[in-house]
UniProtKB/TrEMBL annotation:
Keywords: Glutamine amidotransferase, Hydrolase, Lyase, Pyridoxal phosphate. The keyword Manganese does not apply. It comes from Anaeromicropila populeti. GO terms for cellular component: cytosol; glutaminase complex. GO terms for biological process: pyridoxal phosphate biosynthetic process; pyridoxine metabolic process. This is Pyridoxal phosphate synthase yaaE subunit. The active site is at 79 (nucleophile), 169 (charge relay system), 171 (charge relay system). NCBIfam families: PLP_synth_Pdx2 (TIGR03800). L-glutamine binds at residues 47-49, 106, 133-134. It catalyses: aldehydo-D-ribose 5-phosphate + D-glyceraldehyde 3-phosphate + L-glutamine = pyridoxal 5'-phosphate + L-glutamate + phosphate + 3 H2O + H(+); L-glutamine + H2O = L-glutamate + NH4(+). GO terms for molecular function: glutaminase activity; pyridoxal 5'-phosphate synthase (glutamine hydrolysing) activity. PANTHER family: PYRIDOXAL 5'-PHOSPHATE SYNTHASE SUBUNIT SNO, PYRIDOXAL 5'-PHOSPHATE SYNTHASE SUBUNIT SNO1-RELATED.
Length: 186
């Protein structure tokens, strides 16, 4: 099994460290020719979705990756990665891959609560650590999308077929629950 990690910007190194811990092979996607390699799953890290979206377009990788996601490539999108996958925003008009039927609020916790840590349930696992950094959350999920985590009445993790997203950063804690859930899709 080989995972491709989008490494244009943001917290990709931390995802790679998690994959190393789990003894899973990976490589980085930085330019179009990296997409020639075959992979079994894709990680879209946290960071700045606007910057990542712009680079994906400029480097001409958007269409190719979108097609692979639509053809059921398992993908894990964390924070900005979730924004890249969302089909709809409640406070923005731009979309990126737009493959996941969710409505996302960007920077949803505002300035004061911009970053915080808590614990919550993810799928069948209870009490996992969650770190939120200027995070988005989902205001609605559509068409067969399943909420995997709800914190303070907000949906902060969800799954639609092969696509798993989290508002929080599972790569910044020592907890492997979310990565394991993603790898189990492969
Ligand atoms: N930690 C993060 O990934 C923050 C996401 C950021 N608010 C964005 O819009 O991309």
């Amino acid at each position: 099994m080989t995972i491709a990690v989008l490494a244009l910007q943001g917290a990709f190194l931390e995802h790679e460290q998690m994959l190393e811990r789990l003894e899973v092979d990976y490589f980085e996607i930085r330019k179009k020719s990296d997409l020639k390699r075959s992979f079994d799953g894709l990680i879209l890290p946290g960071g700045e979705s606007t910057a990542m979206g712009k680079l994906l377009q400029e480097l001409k990788m958007m269409d190719d990756l979108k097609e692979q996601i639509e053809q059921d490539m398992p993908v894990l999108g964390t924070c900005a990665g979730m924004i890249l996958l969302a089909k709809e925003f409640s406070n923005d008009a731009n979309t990126y891959f737009a493959t996941m039927p969710i409505c996302v609020r960007r920077n949803a916790y505002g300035r004061q609560l911009g970053s915080f840590e808590t614990r919550g349930t993810f799928a069948d696992s209870t009490d996992i650590p969650m770190i939120f950094i200027r995070a988005p959350y989902m205001e609605a999920v559509y068409e067969g999308t399943r909420a995997l985590s709800v914190v303070n009445e907000k949906i902060v993790a969800a799954q639609y077929k092969n696509q798993v997203v989290t508002s929080f950063h599972p790569e910044l804690t020592g907890d492997i629950t979310v990565h394991q859930h993603f790898l189990n899709l492969i």
